[in-house]
Each structure stands twice: as structure tokens, then as C-alpha cells.
Design brief:
Helix 3 crosses helix 7 and helix 6 runs antiparallel to helix 7. It is globular, with a radius of gyration of 20 Å. With 336 residues, the protein is an alpha/beta fold. It has a single domain, classed as Rossmann fold. A seven-stranded mixed beta sheet has the order 3-2-1-4-5-7-6, sandwiched between helices. The structure holds S-adenosylmethionine. S-adenosylmethionine binds next to helix 2.
């Protein structure tokens, strides 16, 4: 089976909530353009694709940008060519390959040694294919590698640590993603800091789902970022991370101010915000940087606000235990 956009593990993915959020948007907002400003997996853009004429997808991670371009860019691609390349990648025998960047750093840690060799070799091959691929085909191959990596990684779902104390088994299989047909819709993909992006954006409905705790996405998904950028930097520490990049202000103590600046800047008809009540959590890294009351006050100043809620069991790495986990959606009709 080919991968759909939601077939990956991603902290805070709204996949299981996307029908609920979409129906709230449909019942409470009017418009033809939608912006997914902290898009993560891109599942909310996918859910709104058939309902809007124009979709803006933004996130500041390199790996997410490549994934959105692979699924949504409206450029032709040769599926037979990609199928042949996929077969070639799956015929690779690890024992015929030399040590490479991925096996050196990640072997027997985030992946088995053989899988890491294959992953490093395939990533290099995608670049060596050069003009054989157009941009869309190249993005499809890199996104497919990222989705395939997620299935063979020795982790609980993110890369803040790998699982220690067990033999890491070979399980890497290269599978292709399934790009979506865009037809007459306009999809605009960007990799910008949300607050900078908001200064230029004009859109009917803006969906906002930032991180609310201290866990930085660029540090959680550093392996995917590194394999996408492929600059092969030195890596540091137990979790083999590169030097920090794309550190989010939403994960720091001035998050309420940054959030307020974003809301004040937005030029749109409706603002839709996702929020959950993890701020009561025992673990300090899971505790929210913006409280429910702060969020309410900031949003109320922008127009007429409605709040919706739903109980939801979240994916987490095990440290946090919520019995009364609630997911909230705020919808603000701007300026009324
Ligand atoms: C909670 S996740 C979004 C999940 C997404 N709604 C989904 O369903 O997959 C937050 C996202 O915001 C991105 N992010 C964090 N700070 C950002 C910033 N300042 N500008 C743009 N994106 C940012 C992260 O990379 C992450 O993907």
C-alpha cells in the first residue's frame, strides 16, 4: 500500500480529530480560502482540500515542506519511473554497501545498522538522480523515504531518544507516498516562521495549532530534518542531534506574547484555534506555556468567540498521564 498523508507518527497530529474540526469550520465559518499556519502533518489542509478554492500550508520544518510539496504540488510526475526507482531501492542488499553518513551516526541506534546503510545510500542516490527527476518527483522520493523511515525507526514515535537495551532489527522497506489530485484548486506551500508569515497573509479562515509546551518540534524530528536537508553535519549528544535550528518561541515562556502578536497581526475573517488541557500535566515539558484563560482573553479581543470541546486520548511517549484530557477549538469571527 502507498502512504497517505496521515500514515506517520507525529506528536499533536489532528488526524483523529480532523472530521470534528472540519465540521466545526463548515458550520461556523464562511469563505473560500484556508490557511493551515502550523500545519505539522498537513492533515487539516488535506481535510479542507475539497471545501476551499485556495489553501495555504505553512510550517517551519524542512521535512514538512518537502512532504506538503510531494502530496500537494500541482506538477506532473511519472509514476512508472518512480515505481522502477522504488523497486531498485528495495533490491539493495545492505552487505554490498559501504559505511555512509547514516550508518556512521544512526546505525544500531535510531535504525539497525543495515537499515541505516540503506537509508543513507538511498538519500544519496536521490540527489545523484539529478535531472532524471523533476522537482515533484524528487520531493515524492524524499517524502517516501521519510514515511518509510518512520516505520523502521527504533523510537516511540519521535527522535528525542532511541530505544536502548535491545537488538535493533532490520525492517526498512521503501514505499511510495500517494500524491493527491489538486485539479483547479490553488495550494500555496511555505516554510516560514508563522508570525512573519502572518504579516503578508490575507485569507478567509486561518487555522492555528502551535506547540503549547516546551518540546521543540525541530529537536523531536531532527533525524527527518537532517535527512531532508542532507548537509551531513556533525551530530552531538546521546540523541545525535545537529546544532539547534528553528527553535519555536511558542515553546518558551514568552509564548503568550508571541501568540498575541500573531492574533493581532492576522488579516482574516475567521480564526480557528486548537488547544488542549495538558497544562495541568505533572511533567514540566508537557505543561502548557499558554493557559486557557490567557488564550480566551487574547482571542476575545479580536471578535466574537465560540468555544467547543471534546474528550480525546492523545499520543504521547508515556511520561504524562491525563485522565480528563480535553481538546478545545476556539472560533473567532473577526471584528464583530
Ligand atoms: C501541534 S503541531 C501541528 C499539528 C498539525 N495541526 C497536525 O494535525 O499535524 C505544531 C507545528 O507547528 C510548527 N511550528 C512551531 N513553531 C512554529 C513557528 N514559529 N512557525 C511555523 N511553524 C511552527 C511545528 O513544526 C509543528 O509542526
Amino acid at each position: 500500500m502507498n502512504y497517505n498523508i496521515w500514515n506517520r507518527r507525529y506528536t499533536g497530529s489532528k488526524y483523529k480529530l480532523s472530521e470534528w474540526i472540519t465540521s466545526l469550520i463548515e458550520n461556523n465559518c464562511v469563505g473560500t480560502s484556508f490557511c493551515d499556519m502550523f500545519a505539522g502533518t498537513g492533515i487539516m489542509s488535506y481535510a479542507m482540500l475539497n471545501k476551499m478554492k485556495k489553501i495555504y500550508i505553512n510550517d517551519f520544518l524542512y521535512s514538512n515542506e518537502v512532504i506538503y510539496k510531494a502530496f500537494f504540488d500541482n506538477e506532473p510526475y511519472d509514476i512508472d519511473k518512480l515505481g522502477k526507482i522504488k523497486s531498485r531501492f528495495n533490491d539493495i542488499k545492505a552487505d554490498t554497501l559501504r559505511e555512509n553518513y547514516c550508518s556512521k551516526w544512526y546505525g544500531n541506534k535510531f535504525f539497525s545498522y543495515n537499515d541505516a546503510k540503506k537509508i543513507g545510500y538511498i538519500r544519496e542516490q536521490i540527489d545523484l538522480l539529478g535531472d532524471v527527476l523533476n522537482k515533484k518527483e524528487r520531493n515524492i522520493l524524499i517524502a517516501s523515504l521519510l514515511y518509510s523511515i518512520d516505520k523502521s525507526a527504533n523510537t516511540v514515535g519521535h527522535y528525542d531518544a532511541y530505544i536502548k537495551g535491545k537488538i535493533v532489527e532490520d525492517k526498512f522497506i521503501f514505499k511510495l507516498i500517494r500524491p493527491y489530485s489538486i485539479e483547479d484548486r490553488d495550494v500555496i506551500i511555505t516554510r516560514k516562521d508563522a508570525n512573519e508569515y502572518a504579516k503578508k497573509l490575507k485569507c478567509d479562515i486561518v487555522y492555528i495549532d502551535p506547540p503549547y509546551n516546551s518540546r521543540q518540534y525541530s529537536r523531536f524530528y531532527h533525524v527527518l530534518e537532517n535527512i531532508t536537508s542532507w548537509n551531513k553535519p556533525n551530530l552531538y549528544g546521546e540523541a545525535l542531534k545537529p546544532k539547534p535550528e528553528n527553535m519555536s518561541e511558542y515553546c518558551r515562556s514568552n509564548a503568550p506574547l508571541v501568540f498575541k502578536n500573531l492574533i493581532d497581526t492576522l488579516d482574516c475573517r475567521y480564526i480557528v484555534v486548537s488547544y488542549n488541557n495538558t497544562y495541568k500535566s505533572k511533567s514540566s515539558s508537557s505543561r502548557n506555556k499558554i493557559t486557557f484563560e490567557e488564550l480566551e482573553n487574547i482571542l476575545r479581543n479580536k471578535g466574537t468567540m465560540k468555544v467547543f470541546s471534546k474528550s480525546h486520548q492523545y499520543f504521547n511517549a508515556g511520561k504524562t498521564d491525563f485522565n480528563d484530557h480535553k481538546e478545545f477549538v476556539f472560533i473567532v469571527k473577526v471584528g464583530v
